[in-house]
Specification:
five-stranded antiparallel beta sheet; 228 residues
């Protein structure tokens, strides 16, 4: 009998006390909170990185496209089409130019290589770029209607070239026109003095969590066909 009692006294108690369970649950909660915070930060960083890459790719692609067309502004090898910079809009949001670059009518497949014919009635020869700040859109229009010449608006056969285009930092215009000495030209009546154009483009992309990622790219282009 005494040996059985002794054995019972030496047998350890099974299970955990309430205090031990509360401590364990508290530690598990801390670890879980740290894991959730870590994965949330990783997700946010990935979303920001993706938004940054998307903004960068969109801005660069649109900028390259515009510069490619602008290089032909004023292209008029037969000297009778009158190709030129036709309008610079107030605030630098609009630029219209022309080039005798094709001999196929509008609506056709266009011309892969410049084929001048002495007029500006063919495919892609009169181009307007316009930033619509209300819609945050960059528009490319062909053969703008005279009704919007000189107005802060655009018309004609338009397409949205790029979305989420926002105002540039420090109020820099989309198009900055410069004369031979690098001085800005803002008066449309002096557009014949333009020799180069700086295109500055800012694109915004949602980065998740209500945040926005913006990327700005700028490039200066010498208008080699202007002022010849």
């Amino acid at each position: 009998m005494s040996s059985a009692k002794t054995a019972n006294r030496r047998r350890p108690e099974s299970g955990y006390s309430l205090a031990e369970l509360l401590v364990a649950l508290g530690l598990a909660g801390v670890v879980l909170a740290l894991l959730v915070s870590f994965f949330t930060q990783v997700h946010r960083a990935a979303a920001l990185q993706q938004a940054s890459a998307s903004a960068q790719q969109s801005a660069r692609a649109a900028l390259d496209y515009m510069l490619h067309e602008l290089r032909l502004a004023g292209f008029d090898p037969l000297r009778r089409a009158g190709a030129a910079i036709e309008e610079i809009g107030a605030g630098g949001r609009k630029l219209r130019f022309s080039a005798d670059r094709c001999d196929e009518p509008p609506g056709s497949g266009g011309c892969l290589q410049p084929q001048p014919d002495g007029d500006l009635d063919d495919a892609g020869e009169q181009v307007t770029y316009y930033h619509d700040p209300g819609q945050q859109a960059l528009r490319r229009c062909l053969y703008e209607d005279p009704a919007t010449f000189g107005a802060d608006a655009v018309s004609g056969s338009c397409q949205r070239l790029l979305d989420r285009v926002v105002a540039n930092p420090q109020g820099i215009p989309l198009f900055t026109c410069l004369d031979e000495d690098g001085e800005p030209i803002t008066d449309n009546g002096e557009r014949d003095r333009i020799r180069s154009v700086v295109v500055t483009l800012t694109v915004a992309e949602p980065g998740g969590g209500g945040r926005t990622v913006t990327r700005t790219y700028a490039s200066r282009l010498r208008l080699r066909n202007i002022g010849l």
